[in-house]
Design goal:
34% of the residues lie in helices and 22% in strands. The protein has 465 residues and is α+β, with helices and mostly antiparallel strands.
Length: 465
């Protein structure tokens, strides 16, 4: 068995945990808590993100311990009732305002999945809940030596790989001495079976002829909406194929559907896109490289709104990585994919992509990216500078889906070229239309959020919003 030293708790940290109350990473117990309840909570914290257990305090008050040494032994005994046993350092005794407490920190990122009497639990808010069968299998894969990417899908054969792609990658990494099968086996992209070499999940995602035949959810859905919320006016592309192609096409979708205009930097004007393309690329690459490909029925989503861009990836943060240590810690759920994508030039294996995203956003004067864990995934939100761009136009591919009439399409084209339009200029564009018809066209485009009306009466003009 391996001994896992707990992190060094301080009395200040214990006090902060008690003040915070029971939650996702804090569990408070009265003096009479049973060993079984303590063991179940220890297993649940170990199976999630770790946390702090405190004996002698509840949400309502700090009751203290009647026999502190015995309470500490009870907490230590609970750790030995998990399977496998949680071999941690001895619990800490703390004096808090005259009351004795026993406390223990369970590290995050432990390498096993822990149970108590055959029951597997995780921490959900301030409660422990049983793991479903699929969630348990996923956790076992994440913490086991062989992850989902290393498995061979039933029925997949060597013929399902693109030999030219494999050969090009061998040339890229200058490893032509090995056979194609030996090359892929050494990189976790193939296994030797009784019927011969067969591709793994990683092999199909990187070099497969039709990866989605075996992994239907391994795709990216890209959508550009008109406003700040989902609506019926949008441009959509479903991106499939091998991962390298998915990354390039998703980046191209964002690039072609983002606004571009002028911004002031000091006293000078300069052309600027809505989002720094390097930050967009990093968010997409991270989603592709680190998503949980065992999740069915859900795919990566790149959603563009008028005020933000969201990149959602199935699967919560892997291993010991949490939202709190995201910038400092490194862990790869898909080591074979990360290695190959690094060799293709998409990522650095050192894993400093998020650091670069933060740095570039700061240099561009943008709000930092927002990172969130959802119930079953991870979302990165980028905040662009579309609202600050001068003369920024929505992409033509977007407004062409909005069922504009021919006059309005001509109007939008004019404003894209000239930055603004007046009533007189629109009348010259459409000499056969009545003033009332043109007024309704303007009102419709303002209501849809495409135009912004500036000025009053004869001084009125319109710009792209």
């Amino acid at each position: 068995m391996t001994f896992f030293p707990a992190l060094r708790l301080t009395s200040g940290q214990v006090q902060a945990a008690v003040a915070a109350g029971s939650g996702q990473r804090v569990a408070l117990f009265g003096d009479r808590a049973s060993v079984r309840v303590l063991a179940e909570t220890a297993a649940a914290l170990a199976n999630t993100q770790g946390g702090v257990m405190v004996l002698g305090a509840t949400a309502n008050r700090v009751s203290g311990l009647t026999d502190a040494p015995a309470a500490r032994e009870k907490l230590a005994a609970a750790l030995l009732q998990t399977e496998p046993p949680l071999l941690l350092a001895s619990p800490l005794l703390v004096d808090l305002a005259g009351a004795a407490l026993a406390a223990l920190e369970i590290p995050s990122g432990l390498p096993h999945v822990y149970s108590v009497k055959g029951q597997y639990l995780i921490r959900s808010g301030a409660a422990n809940r049983p793991l479903s069968g699929e969630a348990l299998r996923r956790l076992l894969r994440d913490r086991g030596e062989a992850g989902f990417e290393s498995q061979a899908p039933p029925g997949a054969t060597w013929a399902d790989l693109d030999a030219d792609r494999v050969a090009r990658h061998q040339q890229l990494v200058e490893d032509m001495a090995a056979t194609a099968a030996g090359f892929l086996r050494g990189r976790g992209c193939a296994l030797e079976t009784a019927a011969g070499p067969a591709p793994t999940v990683a092999g199909l995602l990187l070099f497969g002829r039709e990866p989605q035949r075996w992994l239907r959810s391994a795709e990216i859905t890209c959508v550009r909406y008109v406003g700040a919320a989902m609506s019926d006016d949008f441009v959509r592309e479903d991106v499939r194929g091998v991962l390298s192609d998915q990354i390039r096409r998703a980046e191209a979708f964002v690039s072609s559907n983002m606004r571009r205009g002028m911004r002031l930097r000091g006293l000078a004007r300069e052309e600027a896109p809505e989002y720094p393309i390097s930050v967009v690329r990093e968010a997409i690459v991270n989603a592709v490289a680190h998503r949980d490909y065992s999740v069915r029925g859900d795919n990566i989503r790149v959603l563009m709104f008028s005020d933000r861009l969201e990149v959602y990836s199935p699967g919560r943060l892997p291993g010991h990585v949490t939202l709190e240590n995201l910038l400092e810690e490194r862990f790869s759920r898909n080591e074979a994919l990360v290695q190959a994508l690094a060799e293709m030039g998409f990522i650095e294996r050192l894993g400093y992509g998020i650091d670069r995203m933060m740095r570039v956003c700061q240099q561009e004067g943008l709000a930092p990216p927002r990172f969130e864990e959802t119930a079953a995934g991870f979302r990165v939100t980028l905040f662009g500078q579309g609202a600050q761009l001068i003369g920024a136009a929505p992409p033509a591919s977007l407004w062409m889906t909005m069922q504009l009439n021919p006059r309005q399409e001509a109007l939008i084209t004019y404003v894209q070229a000239h930055r603004r339009i007046t009533n007189r200029e629109y009348q010259q564009l459409c000499p056969d239309a009545s003033p009332e018809t043109l007024r309704r066209d303007f009102a419709d485009l303002v209501d849809r959020g495409l135009l912004l009306k500036i000025g009053e009466k004869r001084a009125t003009y319109y710009v792209l919003k």
